[in-house]
Design goal:
Elements (H helix, E strand, L loop, with lengths): L7 H7 L1 H14 L5 H15 L3 E5 L2 H11 L7 E4 L6 H8 L3 E4 L11 H13 L6 E5 L10 H11 L2 E5 L7 E2 L2 E2 L6 E5 L13 E5 L2 H10 L4 E3 L2 E2 L10 H11 L2 H19 L12 E2 L5 E4 L4 H10 L29 H9 E4 L7 H15 L1
Parallel strand pairs: 2-3, 2-4, 4-5, 5-8
Antiparallel strand pairs: 1-9, 6-7, 6-12, 8-9, 10-11, 13-14
Helix pairs in contact: 2-9, 3-9, 4-5, 4-8, 6-7, 10-13
Length: 374
């Protein structure tokens, strides 16, 4: 049996008629960038996140960059984030002109540890450098919500802005609130593999702050609010109509798809928890399972090779924490600085999970893992 990590062909076949009609409508309209289709999606995603404003942009990475820029965060500033995530999170901070500051993660959730955030801030106060820190950028990794109340409490104490990296967490909830709508600004990615994925790149910034929303709208079109008149140095970061139309179709299915993924996760948990560490979620968290990660204390790489030989597409997210990446050597971090992130990079492994995964496929995955151990 061959089981992919994600099967987008199966997903497409389940909504083919609606998707094909949406694409034909775009082609017939002749309107391919921004316009009414993007505006419709912006309203839908903002409503889903329970915020006032949604601004479509070209990618999830751009959403982060423009969110930071809209808050006035740039050169000379520091933004606290996690070392255990995809490079785009820290890259966006750097592209905004600021410096990413890493703090370690919680070992159970793999999310940024609020206690370590405060430890860093206390140290900056002692050094009389706390004014350099302007924001916190938590990542809801794999679709598992961060402890937002604690993060927001710290942010309020130190006068910081909170930008949620919700790229992997569309559909997740924190204390009943949609992820992305909890902090000052939320950023989504519509990369095809995400829970809400398009047919190419795309992203969105969501917020309740009108000033932020207005600035992102200007920044995404070369700093212009009136054609050929530019008040800011901006970006070319416009969401196209095709992606918006596809995403509007998929958004109607999102909660149903995530419910199925949660069912798959429960099935995996029951079948695997006597051999590996299965995903941990707090009582206040509703995991969206963009990825299903197990933790393997020994022989992770041998298990990965074994599963791949069995036709099971398993992968590592992420093999090298950001503080040890070559592009961030200039920050001066070294191995051992963030032991929890470093250990997670050596022990975690993603198993196939997508809404259309069959019971037979789930059984096969569990049987293969059990075969490896027993």
């Amino acid at each position: 049996m061959q089981i992919p990590l994600l099967d987008l062909k199966v997903q497409y076949s389940s909504i083919k008629e609606e998707i094909d009609k949406a694409i034909r409508d775009i082609l017939d309209s002749g309107q391919f960038i921004l316009g009414k289709y993007v505006q419709k999606l912006e309203e839908e995603v903002a409503g889903y996140a329970n915020v006032k404003y949604g601004i479509g942009v070209a990618s999830g990475t751009d959403a982060l960059i423009l969110a930071l820029a809209s808050l006035g965060i740039g050169r000379g500033d520091e933004v606290i984030t996690t070392p255990f995530t995809f490079i785009a999170t820290a890259e966006a901070i750097s592209r905004a002109g600021a410096t990413p500051v890493f703090v370690d993660i919680e070992p159970k959730t793999y999310n940024i540890d609020p206690e370590r955030i405060e430890q860093y801030l206390k140290q900056r106060v002692k050094e009389s450098k706390s004014q350099r820190v302007k924001g916190i950028l938590p990542v809801h990794l794999y679709g598992n919500p961060c402890d937002m109340d604690r993060i927001l409490k710290i942010a309020n104490k130190y006068g910081l802005k909170v930008v949620e990296d919700s790229a992997q967490a569309t559909g997740a909830r924190y204390n009943g609130r949609s992820i992305g709508g909890v902090g000052d600004v939320g950023c989504f990615s519509f990369f095809p593999s995400k829970n809400l994925g398009g047919f190419g790149d795309g992203g969105m910034v969501v917020t309740n702050d009108k000033a932020v929303a207005d600035k992102v709208r200007i920044l995404r079109v070369h700093g212009s609010s009136a054609k050929y008149y530019h008040s800011l140095i901006g970006f070319n970061s416009r969401l196209d109509s095709l992606q918006a139309a596809v995403l509007s179709v998929k958004l109607k299915k999102l909660d149903e798809w995530i419910a199925r993924k949660r069912e798959h996760a429960r099935f995996y948990n029951q079948g695997l928890n006597d051999m590996v560490v299965t995903p941990y979620t707090e009582d206040w968290a509703e995991h969206a399972y963009h990825l299903y990660l197990i933790r393997v204390k020994e022989d992770r790489d041998r298990l990965l090779e074994f599963l791949n030989r069995k036709g099971i597409d398993s992968r590592i997210y992420y093999p090298l924490p950001l503080h040890l990446q070559e592009c961030y050597k200039n920050l001066g971090y070294k191995e051992g600085d963030f032991p929890e992130a470093e250990l997670a990079s050596k022990e975690t492994l993603a198993l196939p999970i997508y809404p259309e995964l069959s019971e037979a496929q789930r059984d096969y995955v569990i049987k293969a893992v059990r075969e490896f151990y027993f």
